[in-house]
Amino acid sequence: MANTKTALVKESSSKTDKSRLLIVSNRLPFTIEEREGEPSLQPSAGGLVSGLGAYLEGIKDPNLREITPESVPYVWIGWPGATVPEASQSMLKEDALTNFNAWPVFVDEEAMDTFYHGFCNKTIWPLFHYLPSFAVYNDEYWQQYKDVNRIFAEAVLEVIRPGDTVWVHDYQLMMLPKMIREKMPQANIGFFLHIPFPGYEIYRLLPRKWGAEILEGLLGADLVGFHTHEYTQYFQRTVLRELGYEHNLGEMLVEDRLVRAETFPMGIDYPRYHEAINRPEVEREKRALHRSIGDTKLVLSVDRLDYTKGIINRLEGFERFLDENPEWHNKVTLALITVPSRVGVERYQETKQQIEEMVGRINGRFGSIGWTPITYQFRSLSFNTLVALYNVSDVALVTPLRDGMNLIAKEYVAARSNGAGGVLILSEFAGAAKELGEAITINPNGREEIAEAIKEALEMPEEEQQQRIALMQERMSRYDVVSWAEDFIEQLHATKEEQTKFGAKLLGAEVREQLLGDYRKAGRRLVMLDYDGTLVPFQKDPQLASPSAQVLSIVNQLASEPRNEVVLISGRDKDTLQNWFGDLPVGMVAEHGVWTRKPQAGESWEMIQPMTSEWKQSIRPILEMYANRLPGSFLEEKSFSIAWHYRAADPDLGPVRAKELLDHLVNYTANINIQVLQGNKVIEVKTAGVSKGTTGLRWLNDSHADFVLALGDDWTDEHLFMVLPDTAYSIRVGLVQSYARFNLRSYKDVLGLLEQMAENDEADEAEAQEHDYRLEGRPVGAA
User: Fold this and answer.
1) Which of 170, 306, 530, 761 is flagged as catalytic?
2) pTM score, two decimals?
3) Is pLDDT of 8 > 50?
């Protein structure tokens, strides 16, 4: 049990309105070292730690005296890097909070090894970096991944309180947003993926259940962020293909929430790198480097030891450069520095061995007593040494096979201070390539491209180098890591505000009570109901969407009440509606208003006005052509309309073909008296002049109702909502913009509301009977 200082007492949250930022990542910004038998915390220099450091410094409270989980502006939640005995956990929590604003997640090293070196780095890492042949699909790894995510969720729930913002980072914790959401539905949650998100054809290599659960985990966040627009699009497409959620300008309606996917290219702490050249320590390092380099041109390669970084490719490219350009022998050196990484993964050890063998072979082939073509180091570098290397190098060679962003490229550009030139050679598959357009971009799989780029870089005029560097620096200085973090948090809050706006239109408890009260008091009521998507869920085949026993019972109860007039206003054909609802005392409108049937039993169908269907002969071939071009789509022919359905078609190709068909039809029918309607996964062509609005208005005028309720789910119902009086209760199903006054989340909520209305009718009948008895002067209950 933690002591008083670090105990998280939820009741204390009522004492302050100050919200905090909870950063959740796999690792904390420190490592545990054993000193004199006791765990000691030492700052670490990971990419995320250094990236977020500048932003977090800016939100610290300099006047804060007592450090508690409730008082700090942010808390960093993550694994401390080692198994911590239970007896030492309380002390570690206090030290972590006091010195790092951190809250450790305690997981034993064996479980973390299966989690991190297993599913994270043997499945997700290679697959998301487009190396599917390296991916391992192991059920134990997958289960451990979920288990560790759940342990992290429990740790977050210890710390979180209402109003806090949770920012989850990277591929190790993709299940976490949903796990938090399940316990705290109103939580403000953002997620950022720091590695690439692959295209659907790669992602689908995951076992289907795993892939779906990961996507659902990510969609537990309110905002999901990626480094490039390309990754964002891949994510949206994969969500559509796997889960069926469409997006509109990056926004997806996931059950009852609005979720946004957006692009945020991560920056660096630009001033730190750009101004470091003025440090005496860096200047000393520079002088030492210049003495050892002499007049030789220096090509710099700095990377973690990782098979995705393309180190083998760049060595082969450099070898080809030396082959084809003997005039550069003795004049250029490649400084190859690989930083130890994931030593427990076999692939990394194999990569290290390949690198060392290749360096030895190239040096043996081209080197001389006075010249070593490649200087190779396998170690980490201090910040000062790294900046000095960035500054003295003539060329930076950054050639990942696939990379989420690659901050080394940005660090190199930022470190070119005092008007220095320098050339960046950058893989087109690095996220940074989208921003650093002045770099020489290459395909790292083309050894000839790498060789040519090295030659071009070494021979580039100094003035051109300076111009390119200056343009990239200006861009990077405007959108640094602080701007990136602020942008993400602002967009997260904006997304939450957008959810609140939609929530404000939701038919909440107060408005529902008002609606039911007005319904009970009304003498004449008109209830107008759409069918598909309003009373029943959509089906791939429209004929499968027949009404359930529950729907028939509710509609019959409402329609049987003498004060009610219930009308089904649908795009369905009249025969289908007659088959399903013909025995009920309901009014019906078919084909968006073409056909009507009064609610009295035995009434026949009538056309609202004379119409012709001669236009079908010219339109049908167009629709048939698109049905043939899109497998899974089909035509539904009605009396005075033809519908082209594509709900069962490929979710990517369907909307494309629909847009093509829509454009085709709009142009073709410009001078014909017909109307083209775009519904939910359907395009319908019908005779113009009739809509749900015109028919609904006629029904409204004839009813003289003092209570009006209209429910619908797509834009064809908007015609009806627009003609209703301000006093009417108009409700759109789904959290979308609408002329309707209110929204309900789904057809299930619609049925719940209608059931309440029917129950009120039963109560009203009892009250009316009691009232009649009293008017007659008889005691209630008398015969």
Assistant:
1) 530
2) 0.83
3) no
